[in-house]
Design a protein that fits this description.
three-stranded antiparallel beta sheet; alpha+beta; 205 residues
């Protein structure tokens, strides 16, 4: 893993991972809610964490989480990068695959065309697809994975949830979108109450 490994920072990773298991959801960064940056550094991180003295450790833990078999990464809470524990995957998938009006009605034409393409085959984005890709990601309509190209540029690989399920082998429980939203709302409300946060889910924005 580039940038760090659980072997070089076992204590920090285990602390972060235990917090994710406890709450089910963990943000990469936030002013109040549990997040990787604060857990790694021991306190709130203002501004971009890339400039922090412990940015290498933060990056390493982020990479380790993204690669862990019990963790899904998506922009779930307040449009921010959120790590989701396996226990909540079925709820996330039920919502992502529902394609309800709140997900589709606000999409641009470019995002709709990109969604149709992703339904057929995986897509690697470039700068021209950045905006429609972000629309699909923020509406939970696709699974997005960040990577660096051979040329050194930053890109995203988009795939449908159907493709992700086939690739991952995860057996999702049968849930209605309504019950799935209830599950994630309950978790988010509990976090907001415990940490005086303001986290909101995509359908609440």
């Amino acid at each position: 893993m580039a940038g760090g490994s659980t072997k070089s920072m076992p204590g920090k990773f285990q602390h972060v991972f235990a917090t994710l298991k406890q709450h089910g959801l963990l943000l990469q960064t936030d002013a109040r809610l549990p997040n990787v940056c604060a857990l790694v550094t021991g306190g709130p991180v203002s501004g971009s964490w890339w400039g922090h003295a412990q940015s290498h450790d933060i990056f390493g833990v982020n990479c380790a989480l993204a690669e862990h078999p019990d963790v899904l990464v998506t922009k779930l809470v307040s449009g921010k990068i959120t790590y989701v524990d396996r226990a909540l995957w079925s709820a996330l998938l039920a919502i992502g695959r529902a394609r309800e009006p709140w997900q589709l009605d606000r999409l641009s034409g470019d995002a709709r065309r990109l969604l149709a393409q992703v339904d057929i085959a995986d897509i690697e984005t470039d700068r021209h697809l950045a905006k429609p890709a972000s629309e699909l990601e923020s509406s939970l309509l696709i699974h997005s994975e960040q990577f660096h190209t051979s040329a050194g540029s930053h890109s995203r690989r988009l795939e449908s949830w159907k493709t992700w399920l086939r690739r991952s082998g995860f057996m999702a429980a049968n849930m209605t979108p309504e019950s799935a939203r209830d599950v994630l709302e309950e978790r988010t409300d509990a976090l907001n109450h415990s940490f005086k946060g303001r986290g909101r889910l995509p359908w609440q924005i």
